[in-house]
Amino acid sequence: MTDKNTPARKSRRHRGASHGTSARHLVSPAQWRESMAIGAPPSPRIFAIAGFQAALAVLLAIVATHFSPWPQLVGFASLGALAALFGRFATVERRMRIVVICALLLALGVLVPSLASWAGAPPWMMAFALALVAGAATVAVSWWGLGGPGAVIIVFAAGAAYHPVGSGAEVLARVLATLAGGVVAVLTCLVTDRWRAPELKALRLPPAHVAPWSHQWIAAGRITACAALAAWIAFMAGWQHPAWAAIGAVSVLQGGHLHITMNRALQRMAGTIVGSFIVWAMLAQQPSFWMVVAAIVVFQFLTEVVIGYNYALGQITVTPMALLMTYLASPAVAASMPVERVLDTILGAALGIVFAVIFSSVDDRVYLHEHHSKDR
C-alpha cells in the first residue's frame, strides 16, 4: 500500500494546488452550487433563543436611550447590545464571561476611530485605524474563544464611529453609550439564559478547530491589510461609508478554508443585494422612529433564526437591520445607503477573495483541491 505522504503522492497533490487551479475551483459551477445549498444548524432552538436575546437587548437599549437625556446616542447603545449575539453554544457560566468581553470589545471598537477622528486624523489614517480594529478583533476572538459571529461585529461597531467627532465629551459619550448597551446585553442574557440549558445538555458539537498562533497572527495581518485597502478604495471612490467595505472583507476572510471564504463572498453579495432592496423599499415610505425600531428588532431575530441554514439568508435580514441602525444615527444619508451598501459589499468581498487566494498556503490550496475532487 502506498503511503499518502510519499514524495510521489505529495507531488500529485501539490500539482492541483497552484494559485491558478485554486482560482478556477473557486469560480466553478460546483462552488456556486455549494454556496446556494441549504444546511441544517446544530440546534434551531438555540439559534432562536440567541436571536430573541439579541433582539430583546437591542430593543431595551434603544428604548432606554431614546427616553434618556441623550437620545442622539441610540445607535451606539444598540451596537453595545449586540454583545448578546456571542457565546450561544457556551455553557451558561461561560456565556456571561463571553458577553462581558464582547461588550468591552465593542466599546473599544467605538473608541479607537472616535479618538482618531477627534485627533484630526486624515482619511487614510482613519482607514488604518479601522483596519487595526479588524486585526486586533480577529486576534481577540481567537484568544478568548469568543466564536461567532466573530470580529465582523466589532468592525461594524467601529464603522459606526467612523464619522467626525467634535470633542472629547462626544468620544466619551459614544463609548459610555456602547458600554450601557453592553450592560443591557449582559443583564438580558443573565435573566434569559436558563432557556438554553436543557438544549445544551443534549447537544453534542464537534471540538472547535484551533489554528496555531502563528497562523492566527498571519490571518490577522491579512485581514488588517485587506480591510485597510477596502476602506481606502471606498473612500477614494467618494463613498460615504468606507467602513462597510472593510466589514465585507473581514466577514469573507473569517472563513477557515478557501471554499468557505468563497461561499461567504457569494452569499454575502447575493444576500446584501436582496436586503438592500428591502430597506430601500422601507425607507421610501418614510417610516416613523418606532416603525424603524420594530423592524430592527424583527430583522435581528430573523437573522439568527435563518443564518444557520445559509449565510445568504442571514444577509438578507441582517442588511436591513444594519442599515436601519445606521439610519437611526444619521437619517440624512438614508437615500444613498442601500446602493452604497451593495457597492461596498462587492468591493470588500472581492478583495477578500483575492487576498485569500494570493496569501493562501500550500495546505490551504491542497485542501481546496481535495474538497472539489470529492464532487467529481
UniProtKB/TrEMBL annotation:
Residues 7-17 have a biased composition (Basic residues). Signal peptide: none annotated. Its main location: membrane. It holds the Pfam family FUSC_2. One of its GO terms (cellular component) is membrane. Residues 229-355 form the Integral membrane bound transporter domain. Residues 1-25 are annotated as: Disordered. It is found in: Membrane. This is Fusaric acid resistance protein-like. It comes from Acidovorax soli.
